[in-house]
Amino acid sequence: MLLRRITYHFNDTEGRYGSPKITILLQREGHQVSERTIGKYMRELGLRSCVAKQFRVNTTDSKHDLPIAPNLLNQQFSTAKPNQTWVTDITYIPCREGRMYLASVLDLCTREIVGWRLSDRMTTDLVLGALDNAYHAKRPKKGLIHHSDRGSQYASADYRKRLVKYRMKASMSRKGNCYDNACIESFHSLLKKEFVYCTKFKTKKQAYDEIYQYIEFFYNRKRIHSTLGYVSPVQFAARFKRKVA
Hints:
One of its GO terms (biological process) is DNA integration. The chain is an alpha/beta fold.
């Protein structure tokens, strides 16, 4: 019975969970098992999480004369409530029909992807689309800190005007310091290692449809996070709604 439950959770997450997370799920079902035991059983079953090695494509064009915002975030990655600090970045998505780029906006409190946009061009419209989606979905109050790298898309006049319209405070990483935007880079790394590099996108439509499924249904609503007490971002965010009610 335990082997069946291990196999179920492994297949239910499309092979993305290893022994640590499967152990948590089994313990919640009432099984008194250790991670070491589950790891042993998974090896016997031939189950191994589908995590692929990552390669990097530079998506930051910081060689420009556009205004640079101060680093308001300063690596303070913990926030007390949702919609106080958002971090954003662009990443490359390989596709046989042509390269694509994903812009994502992440809430530092809940780790939820509150907005995203996929396009075949790394333009200001790409990041504006992700920001617009996030704003219309969450309607944050005045003063939200919006943190990004120094890319020309985020430093552009159109993007700065949109932040003013939404009453957000612009914040940017220090030059050449990837740790200043570590949380959103961590999400993109996770997306690549447990999904994108394990999948071959033949068409751009397939890439959009499957990334939509991963972000909206798996990552936001289902994937448990150790930093959130092993619940999903949507489940964690729901706790704040109950407090307000």
